[in-house]
């Protein structure tokens, strides 16, 4: 699956071999869930004028226990495949099909620039 470039000439990338790295600030909630702090504006001109006038500069995105587990392991040291194996060990059959679900989740986080990847 090619998640970066839609052109036919681009190299195919195996998502399970990528090492995701968190690209957002986050906080931990009361129940140990991860809360991502997503900036409302990324345009530097909007940031200069609007953000100073806003009470809250970020959207808060709460992750469930599975998403929080993946997020906490996106440190650049673990591949997506390794994270999937760790999830199988921790959650067992509660989280099946592991690779497919993690692949979709990580792909979405890459598209939204919540994580960056290195191979």
Characterise the protein shown here.
- By secondary structure, the chain is of the alpha+beta class.
- The chain has a single domain, classed as Outer Surface Protein A, domain 3.
- The chain has helices at residues 44-50, 65-72, 80-91, 98-111; strands spanning 19-22, 25-28, 34-39, 58-62, 115-118.
- A hairpin with a 5-residue loop joins strand 2 and strand 3 (34-39).
- Helix 3 (80-91) packs across helix 4.
- The longest helix has 14 residues, at 98-111.
- The chain is globular, with a radius of gyration of 16 Å.
Tell me the CATH topology. Answer: Outer Surface Protein A, domain 3
Q: Do you know the CATH architecture?
A: Alpha-Beta Complex
Task: Report the structural category.
Answer: alpha+beta
Q: Beta fraction of the residues?
A: 15-25%
Number of strands: 5
Unreliable stretches: none
What's the helix count?
Answer: 4
**What is the alpha-carbon Rg in Å?**
16 Å
Largest sheet: 3 strands, antiparallel
Brief summary:
34% of the residues lie in helices and 19% in strands. By secondary structure, it is of the alpha+beta class.
List the helices and strands and how they pair.
Elements: E1 19-22, E2 25-28, E3 34-39, H1 44-50, E4 58-62, H2 65-72, H3 80-91, H4 98-111, E5 115-118
Antiparallel strand pairs: 1-5, 2-3, 3-4
Helix pairs in contact: 3-4
What would the keywords be for this entry?
single chain; 119 residues; alpha+beta; Outer Surface Protein A, domain 3; 3-stranded antiparallel β-sheet; two-stranded antiparallel ribbon; globular
